[in-house]
Specification:
Two copies of one chain form a homodimer. By secondary structure, chain A is an alpha+beta fold. Chain A has a single domain (11-100), classed as Orthogonal Bundle (Arc Repressor Mutant, subunit A), CATH 1.10.10.10. Helices cover 60% and strands 14% of the residues of chain A. Chain A has a three-stranded antiparallel sheet with strand order 1-3-2. In chain A, strand 2 (67-72) and strand 3 (75-80) form a beta hairpin. The longest helix of chain A has 18 residues, at 83-100. Chains A and B meet through helix 1, helix 2 and helix 5 of A and helix 1, helix 2 and helix 5 of B. Chain A binds a DNA duplex through helix 4.
Chain lengths: 102, 102
DNA sequence: TTTATATATGAATGTTTATTCATATATTCA
DNA sequence: TGAATATATGAATAAACATTCATATATAAA
């Protein structure tokens, strides 16, 4: 793995990127969407949280280009939109499971 | 890459883990330490921030077992203490550089 | 066109958290 | 032992942010 040089702007952006993963609601949304696309209500039910809270978080992930969506009638289906998201999620998960010897 | 099952506790811990990367000061510390161990003052000078602010952040990273340190006289040298930290940093960096077409 | 359903969003609230300031601790040197 | 240097830490402050509530928008169905 070659080390790439990162300037101040890169590092700021990098921390902003990781911030998206640093919230348990968003992490749980990402984990759920690893199975494939899901509607807003399906996500809210799965997480046992209000629709509004989920919509707010989806907005954040969508604006970060981590999610895309498609509309089908009244329903909007969200899906993961970045291979890196899966990879980073997976690597982080491996880390904590390994650290815990699971 | 095999998908591992994650329960609620795992996901909460995972988001806590990513939180460490989701702050520009901590990300800059991690980036600086990729070169090798550095003293607290060296870090503070490099980031152009106060010693106290750096100490507080080092404490957080140390308690998360992302850093270790050794003492040499009055000076304490910190270093990265986890291969995953490097990997995740690198993967995240590749992500944002790629997205920007850099 | 009224009603019902799915989603989005602005404002308010409460909580978390990064930094600063003042001070404490630890080590070295005179 | 006293002064100087490196680091740590508690308390205070300010900024960021997640959730809730109320409401808006969009689509479909009656």
């Amino acid at each position: 793995m070659k080390k790439k040089k990162a300037d101040l702007k890169d590092l700021f952006e990098l921390s902003e990127f990781f911030k998206f993963f640093g919230d348990s609601t968003r992490i749980r949304i990402i984990e759920f969407l690893r199975q494939g696309e899901q509607s807003v209500l399906a996500i809210a039910n799965y997480l046992e949280m209000g629709q509004s809270a989920i919509s707010h978080q989806l907005r954040i992930l969508r604006m970060a280009n981590l999610l895309t969506f498609r509309r089908e009638g009244k329903t909007i289906y969200y899906r993961l939109d970045d291979e890196h998201v899966e990879k980073i999620f997976q690597l982080g998960l491996e880390h904590i499971l390994h650290k815990r010897g699971k």
